[in-house]
Every structure is written in structure tokens, then in C-alpha cells.
Amino acid sequence: MIILSNGKTTEAAQRTDDTETLWVRLGELPAATGWQMKPQGACLGDLCVPVPEHKREEWIADAEDWVWLNYSEFADLLGQKYVRDGDVWSLGSIPEVRRMGLESAVAPDFELTDRNGDVLKLSDFRGRKVVLFSWSSW
Amino acid sequence: MYESIGPDRFELISVAQDSGGPSAINKWYDKAKPTYHCVVDPTHEISSLFGWVNVPSAAWIDEDGQIVRSNEGVYPSEVSIGFGLGKVRAGDDSFAQATRDWIERGADSEHVWSSRELAERLKPVDDDKLLAEATFKLALHFEAVGDSERALKHFAAAEDLAPDNWNYMRQGWTHKGTVYASWKILKRTADLRKNTDKSFYDPTGLPGENYRRFTETEWLWTPALKRVKQLFRD
Fold this sequence. Notes:
Chain A contains four helices and 13 strands. Chain A has 138 residues and is an alpha+beta fold. Chain A has one domain (2-100). The longest helix of chain A has 10 residues, at 95-104. The two termini of chain A are 31 Å apart. By secondary structure, chain B is of the alpha+beta class. Chain B has one domain (2-123, 164-233). Chain B has a three-stranded antiparallel beta sheet with strand order 5-6-7, with no helix packed on it. Chain B has a two-stranded parallel sheet with strand order 1-2. In chain B, α7 (148-161) packs antiparallel against α8 (166-174) and α8 runs antiparallel to α9 (178-195). The chains are: A alpha+beta (138), B alpha+beta (234). The interface between A and B is large, with 47 and 75 residues. β13 of chain A pairs antiparallel with β3 (57-61) of chain B, so a sheet runs across the interface.
């Protein structure tokens, strides 16, 4: 299956016995979604969400030789919207990340490629004033 | 604006939001030969991250990486944009002047926002808008892999969910061709002008801005029509 998240397109393994739910292998979770399982829970940078004890069995499953996270359930808890068409899943922004960003007003970092193929990273410009603007050909 | 304020005093980063990627925008860059940073953003990440719903939008980011202002509809001066059968005038120099002031005076500039003002001024986001974002990205994916049917289906769904997000609509309409997109945008802005007090862009709140900018469409036949009317008056 294909997961679209944060502007990235990632191929990930799918649980063949339950294709209606977005199960993601723990090992593929960081690349596909940005989240990583740690002892304190699922973490996205400094933001960690503990897996509720009574949900552990529903959320984390041993199947087909791998350990999987039920990302559909996890996204529902986060209020993160997702939409699926065939084997393509698209994940929206996480409201909590947006809220934290607005409270701190820290500019979210990004990496984009210029026309020469060089990567530009916003945080490389710390110490300088930046005017960032969007435009389009349409 | 960049040249006149002084390239050594700040960084200007231009982000092209175009699902067509470099091939869609390179001819513009070839013509403009910009001296500032230019990157391509085929999946509209910038707008997702900064909460923008139209182009051009801009944010000021200070030396500590803090957003101190964010607006839509910012042009360096008045520009005339052609749309096939019509054209519209957009913008004024209020944003360039405010930017100059901020670059000179930093946090002392009266145009700087607090984080609370930023949160209040950005468009609110609800479940439908969050779902629209995921749906729009799904449409972009199918467009990129050449599945036009599914791309159009999801572009339409995103438009239904977030009818005030011009980025989603305009990118989606462009899938059917630039003529179609131009017609849609002129029709939609005309409807706005007729039925609401909204404008294509939210006001920036900057002194001297032309608030109802981008609402006065001048069609190809407008000058001829004016002449005929004049004749009858005379």
C-alpha cells in the first residue's frame, strides 16, 4: 500500500488479513508517518502519546511475522483525518501539532528542492530574517 | 522588492505550489531570473504548514525562527493578471512598505504580530477542513500517477469540504486545463462580489491596502462596452 503523509509518499507493507484498517509495521512507522514507538508511547519529535493500557491489545498486534500499529485507531484518537482510495491512504495534519505550532509561533520547518535539485531547509536560515512566500503558475 | 530592500538584509524564499513540479514553473523562473531562493512544492506542504488558503501568501520569520506575520494576497505592487477573456488588478505596495519597515526595525515594527494575533488571524480549521486537506493530497497523488478519473473525484470532494480554500480549488480546476481554471476563477470571484462582502483575499490590515482588490474584473470587451456607453451618453 501507499501512505501519503507530510508531503511524502511511502510504500509500506499491508496486513493481508485486514485491508480495511490502516495497520502499519512498527519498523515502517517513522518513514511512513513520522511517528516512532518508544517506551513512553508513540512519539513525533518531542510530542509523545502513551498507548492507553486498555487499548494495547486493539492497537498493537502480532500478525504475519510482524508487529503492527493500528494507525486508524491511533489517528482517530489524535483527531487526524485520513482518507483512502484503493490501497492509497492519505493522512491529514495533526490538530495538536498545529495547535502547539500556533501557541509557540515557531515557524514549522520544511525541506524543499530548488530547480537545481539542491535542498533548502528553513531552519538553516536561523539568525536571518526570512520572508517566505507562496505563488503558483495557475 | 528584494533588490530594493537589500539582499544582504534578509532572505527571500519563493515557494512554487504546483502539482506539475519543476516543468510547470521553470519557464516563469527562466523569465524572471530571480536572485533569491526558489523552491518547488508539488504537494502544497507550505500551505498545510502555514495554514494558507490562497496564493500569493507570505510569512515573516524572525531571526529566532518565529512567525511574526502571515497574510494572503500579498503582492509587491499593483499587478494585472490575465485570465484569457479577462484580467484583474491585484495588490498594491502596502506589503512591500510594511516589509521594509519590519526589516529595518524588527520587533519594533508596528506590523509585527504576537503569537495570539497569529492564532486569531489564521483561518480556523475544523474536521471538514482537515479531511479536505487529506483528500486534496490524495487527489494530487492520483494526478501525479496519471489517474485522472480518481484525481478529479478527490479534487471535487476537497472543494466540497473546504469551499473557501482557493489553493485546492484552483489547483484542481487546473487539472481540466488553464482555460477552464481561468473561467472558474473569474466566475467564482464575480459570484463573491455579487453575493457577499467577501473578497478573493482576506484584508491584510496594512495601511493603504486596496481592500477589495482582485474583485474588479476587466473583460476583453469591457473597454469597447465603455466606449459604446459613452457614445450613448454623448
